[in-house]
């Protein structure tokens, strides 16, 4: 067995680095994310995860993601996209933001935060303090876990 000089030994050590320490490969990071939540890294989940998580924090509907999948030649049905989005949010990788009875946005920023809804687009409200709501006390045995506000906006002239 040939002896490795220190440079190639370092390279060999890097190749043996534990999975969680590799950086820079989006699919690798997704696999780590999925492994942490118990989601199986199927090809469809990895493709959709890559579309979702490789572009920073954002808000998408299932239809938005379907359009992106089509544009990127990722062959998935809308039903699969719905299922995957719900699996991702069930695993804590996305937050669901329901803005009315008919539309749900999926937010890649999973921290609790507030939104403006402007002409059908969800926009994060920068870290500002929302006036405390004058809430009645929760029913016995319950506590407030989170308060998330969606502020619906319309044109000032309307
Ligand atoms: Zn958001």
TrEMBL record:
Q: How is the cofactor bound?
A: Binds 1 Mn(2+) or Fe(2+) ion per subunit.
Q: Which residues cross the membrane?
A: none
Q: Which GO terms describe its biological process?
A: negative regulation of DNA-templated transcription; regulation of secondary metabolite biosynthetic process
Entry cofactors: Mn(2+); Fe(2+)
Residues bound to Fe cation: 113
Q: Which InterPro entries does this UniProt record tie to the protein?
A: FUR, WH-like_DNA-bd_sf, WH_DNA-bd_sf
Query: Where is it mainly found?
Result: cytoplasm
One molecular function GO term is: transcription cis-regulatory region binding
Q: Cellular location of this protein? A: Cytoplasm
Q: Where is the signal peptide?
A: none
Sorted alphabetically, which Pfam families does this protein's record hold? FUR
Q: What are the annotated GO cellular component locations?
A: cytoplasm
Q: Which UniProt keywords apply?
A: Cytoplasm, DNA-binding, Iron, Metal-binding, Repressor, Transcription, Transcription regulation, Zinc
State the oligomer form and interacting partners.
Homodimer.
Write out the similarity annotation: Belongs to the Fur family.
Which protein are we looking at? Ferric uptake regulation protein
Task: State the organism's lineage.
Answer: Bacteria, Pseudomonadati, Pseudomonadota, Alphaproteobacteria, Hyphomicrobiales
């Amino acid at each position: 067995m040939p002896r490795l000089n220190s440079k190639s030994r370092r390279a060999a050590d890097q190749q043996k680095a534990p999975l969680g320490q590799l950086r820079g490969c989006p699919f690798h990071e997704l696999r780590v994310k999925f492994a942490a939540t118990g989601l199986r890294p199927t090809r469809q989940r990895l493709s959709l995860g890559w579309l979702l998580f490789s572009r920073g924090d954002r808000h998408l509907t299932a239809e938005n993601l379907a359009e992106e999948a089509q544009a990127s030649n990722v062959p998935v049905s809308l039903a699969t996209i719905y299922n995957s989005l719900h699996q991702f949010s069930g695993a804590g990788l996305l937050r669901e933001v329901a803005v009315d009875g008919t539309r749900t946005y999926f937010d890649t920023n999973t921290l609790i935060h507030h939104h403006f809804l402007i002409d059908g687009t969800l926009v994060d409200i920068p870290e500002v303090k929302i006036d405390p709501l004058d809430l009645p006390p929760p029913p016995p045995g319950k506590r407030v876990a989170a308060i998330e506000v969606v502020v619906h906006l319309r044109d000032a002239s309307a």
